[in-house]
Amino acid sequence: MVNRKWPETWQEVNPGCMVFEPGSASEYHTGTWRSQKPVWNNEKCIKCGICYIFCPEGCIHEGADGYFSADMDYCKGCGICAHECWPAAISMVEEG
Amino acid sequence: MIEIRWHGRGGQGAVTSVELLAVAAIEEGKFAQGFPSFGPERRGAPVAAFNRVDTKRIKSRAGIYKPDVVAVLDESLIDLVNVVEGLKPQGILIVNTQKTAGQIAKATGFKGHIGVVDARGIAMHEMGVSIANTTMIGALIKATGVVTMDAMKSPIDHRFGRIADKNMNAMTRAYNEIKIS
Amino acid sequence: MSKRIGMEVSIAAAEAVALCRIDVAAVYPITPSTHIAEHLSSIVSDGKLDAEFITVESEHSAMSGIMGASAAGARAFTATGSQGVMYMHEMLPVASAMRLPVVMAIGNRAVSGPLNILNDHGDIMMERDTGWISLFAQNGQEVIDMIIQAFRIAEHKDVMLPVNVNIDGFILTHMVEAMDMPDQDEIDRFLPPFVPYATLHPDRPVSMGTFAGNDIYTEISKSKDAALINAKKTILQIWKEWEKLFGRKYEPIESYRADDAEILLLTMGSMGETAEMAIDALRAKGMSVGLLKFKLWRPFPFDELKKAVKGAKILTVIDRAISYGGPGGPLGIEVRSALYDESSRPAIFNYIIGLGGRDVTPEDFMTILKSSASQAKKKAMKERYVIYGVRES
Q1: Are strands C263-268 and C289-294 parallel, antiparallel or unpaired?
Q2: Fewest CB atoms less than 10 Å from the CB: which of B25, B48, C2, C111?
Q3: pLDDT in the model for residue C380
């Protein structure tokens, strides 16, 4: 049994195709798109947070110690964080 | 139905005249239209504005090509535009001028009735301005009886507030002073 | 009690909008709809109407603004025309897809180029496929009535679609004439406060205007199409109710001396009553002519059209817009298409008239009707459509 995300027929479409379930986009795990993952070298990290700012997925978070990490359920492995990290503390590593 | 064409220059209040006259007729229980020559507003340029007044509902939304009455707010327009174009031979031409009806007949070639009134002089004296649009309504009412002078009071009050009385005075003087051939 | 008034139709339109107690208006003024916006803004700034009047920087923003307001639960209005409605174009199908019951008054005006500010129906015809309900007024009274009806129709739970009210630019927008203005109590009874289907509110989260891929776009489009078609039922009910309350009858296609007519003329908007004069004049000469007037353009009144033309030999469709390189004027194309499957249908002639503010007189309609009649005898119209009155060398 497939859990249906969409209305099946046109009659089931809500007026305006409104979605009443808040945060439903979080059910979609974009982490499955990833072929490379970001790995932080905290010895180089200066806690500037530029990775957090630039992450298009909004999946990088600041830990209690002030260092950053990505939520692998949603990280697409796009590499923007690594590209933007000017102390070069983030490297992209092949999955697997 | 009576159809009226007003000639003026942009800014001389021809559109205000047709609006006031139409509102007065409607408030009297008649049917009326008041509309400008459609298009951009052009201060100083020759413009026309139109009225239809009837006791029945008015259907036509076409332009007015054969007016019963032509009112000219600015006599210098006579040299610029053919103010009597389409004016019915049995109709009437009303001009704001110090000239005589005979002189206007000669200038326009119109052979029907002509009403002349020094509306500019009246407006200057009564209101201190040379804008003669409301003054000319008085002349037009005398010449046509299209509405009563009483009917003008409410739209003039509504439009001009504290200077309404001056406008009514100028209008009344033009009503009394117009000379019709 | 309604009050008989004499005023410019645009001013009356703004007064009617105020009677509807709108919450938000966002307008970018454009000729010939400007006086509607101007007067509405005065009503708001004079404190006579508790509403937000947003002076936006473009028509695109005006439409986006009232859509946002509507999504937040506000009763919202805008007015525009021509280039303005075209600048809104991108947002118009979004408003209908999001089922936002906003109301727009269109002071119909020819589209550039060349630049022209006068009336024709070119602007609305370019927006015909955007999923809005589209009404056409033929006089000032219908402008007042249709604006008020529009909010009731748009917000009805079985409709929830935006409505545009088409008001011929200058011919109606700048006309001072006699109208009946309903009073506030009457309108409060007719038009209850807006109860939105859903609103954007942090306490009750909802996503509007979401992405839809190829797995669902077709179903959503079908549901929007069905909603528009289905809206006619509600429009008819609301018009019946209006007639009961105010004694003025509204039908998708109004007819005038058309019942037994062999030759029918079909018009839209402010040409209607001028055309009646032509019908009267030709009837007086013994010609069997009648008049049909489209008041409901979308949803298209198929059934009413089929019924109205039954028995007629000739149907002469008047368009005030042109579909360049197309098979006729927009109304002509649709009427032909709507009647194509009928086993018995009148010969259809299509004339395009009144472009860019060219005057339309009763004599024009008489010429057109006589010409259709003589061409029908020859069993053929020389061209699929004729641009009437064009100067030729």
Answers
A1: parallel
A2: C2
A3: 65
Q: What is the set of domains in chain A, with CATH numbers?
A: 33-94 (3.30.70.20)
Local confidence band at A1 (pLDDT 50, 70, 90 cut-offs):
very low
pTM of the full structure: 0.94
C220–A13 C-beta distance less than 8 A? yes
pLDDT recorded at residue A24: 81
Of the pLDDT bands very low, low, confident and very high (cuts 50, 70, 90), residue C210 is confident
DSSP state of C1: -
Give B77: exposed, middle or buried? Use CB within 10 Å, 0-12, 13-18, 19+.
Answer: buried
| pLDDT in the model for residue C383 | 83
pLDDT at C109: 98
C124-147 pLDDT, tens digit each:
999 999 999 999 999 999 999 999
Q: Which of residues 14-43 of C touch B (CB under 8 A)?
A: 31
The arithmetic mean of pLDDT across residues B52-71, rounded, is 97
Contact (CB<8Å) C197/A15: yes
From B24, B33, B59, residue closest to C274, measured CB to CB:
B59
Q: Which of A57, A5, A51, A64 is nearest to A31 (CA)?
A: A57
- Pick from A8, A9, A18 the residue to mutate for testing the C interface (most C CBs within 10 Å): A18
Residue A17 has what pLDDT? 86
Reported as type and span, the H/E element at residue C100 is none
The reply to whether residue A18 touches residue C208, judged by beta carbons under 8 angstroms, is yes
- Give CA–CA dist C192/C70, Å, rounded: 16
Cα separation, A75 vs A56, whole angstroms = 9
Domains of chain C by start residue, with CATH: 3-246 (3.40.50.970), 253-387 (3.40.50.920)
Q: Give buried/exposed letters for A58-86 (b at 16+ CB in 10 A, else e).
A: ebbeeeeeeebbbeeebbbbbebbbeebe
C229 contacts chain A (CB < 8 A): no
Are C227 and A15 inside 8 Å of each other by CB? yes
Check CB contact under 8 Å for C197 and A16.
yes
Could you say which of C160, C206, C215 has the minimum Cβ distance to residue A6? Answer: C215
Determine the average pLDDT of the residues in B83-107.
98
> How many whole angstroms separate alpha carbon C277 and alpha carbon C140?
18
What's A74's DSSP letter?
T
**Band of the pLDDT at A2, cuts 50, 70, 90?**
very low
Do A and B make contact via 3 or more CB pairs under 8 A? The reply is no
Nearest CA in chain C to A24: C207
**H-helix or E-strand spanning residue C47:** none
Whether residues C270 and B61 touch (CB distance < 8 A) is answered with yes
pLDDT of residue A5: 62
* For chain B, domain boundaries: 2-180
% chain C with pLDDT above 70: 99
Beta-carbon count within 10 A of C62 CB: 29
ipTM comes to 0.96
